[in-house]
Amino acid sequence: MAGADMPDLGIGALARRTGCKVETIRYYERIGILPEPPRNSGGQRRYHAWHLKRLNFVRRARDLGFTLEDVRGLLRLVDEQGHGCDEVRTMALGHLEAVRARLADLKAMEAVLGEMVARCEGGNVPDCPIIDALYREPA
Amino acid sequence: MAGADMPDLGIGALARRTGCKVETIRYYERIGILPEPPRNSGGQRRYHAWHLKRLNFVRRARDLGFTLEDVRGLLRLVDEQGHGCDEVRTMALGHLEAVRARLADLKAMEAVLGEMVARCEGGNVPDCPIIDALYREPA
DNA sequence: CTTGAACCTGTAGTTACTACAGGTCCTATA
DNA sequence: TATAGGACCTGTAGTAACTACAGGTTCAAG
Question: Is the ipTM of this complex over 0.90?
Answer without folding.
Answer: no
